[in-house]
Amino acid sequence: MRLVLFGATGFAGGRILREATARGHEVVPVARGIGSEGRAGSLHDEPFALDVTAGADVVVVAIPARPLDDGTRLIDALPTLYSLARKQNARLGFVGGAGSLRVSDGGPRVIDTPEFPEAYKPEAGSHAEVLDALREAPEDVDWFYVSPAAVFGAHSPGERTGAYRTGGDVLVTDENGNSAIGGDDYAIAFLDEIERPAHRRTRFTVAY
Q1: Mean pLDDT score of the chain, rounded to an integer?
Q2: What is the CATH number of the domain that holds 152?
Q3: Cα–Cα distance between 178 and 12 in angstroms, integer?
Q4: How many whole angstroms separate alpha carbon 125 and alpha carbon 72?
Q5: Residue 74 near residue 129 (C-beta atoms within 8 A)
Q6: Tens-digit pLDDT profile for residues 29-67
Q7: Who's near 175: CB < 8 A, 6+ residues apart?
Q8: ∠ CA 154-155-159 to the nearest 5 degrees?
Q9: 0.90 exceeded by the pTM?
């Protein structure tokens, strides 16, 4: 398949790029300062976004949701994403956040718990808004949104195991109550969904 990957230089985006390439997919890496190894540009530049996604089967969005230095937010780009998804007949895949997951059935969201770090709230809250907006997307837009476990990112990259479990809107934990997923295994789950769609127009989460 042909994948266009916005945010290819980030933690999740870089691992998705590597996993997709290893599986033999054609990947167009996109980032603002990517250089000659990809296409430099922004999802917020609609003519560029439409051009770079020409022929895409899947458009992967792995960029921050919080306001950037220029004031742009991921949620502001959703109309452009819907437009290009229709034009290219492409599926949209989002690298999401864990903050909008529930700690248990009927329980509070992770972001609303007392122990959630204040410094992470702008990104987590912005991602929750993106997810809410996606759930109201026009019915002809095919999308999926993958929330990682609570522990995920460059501070805890983990080791590749090839194993993961999936869940819906509730945080997935192990027998000790821990919730974690390594970067490579998150990418494996993401590519598995691209190759064998099982979550259409919905969010799912992955963890060990």
Answers
A1: 97
A2: 3.40.50.720
A3: 20
A4: 15
A5: no
A6: 999 889 888 999 999 999 999 999 999 999 999 999 999
A7: none
A8: 70
A9: yes
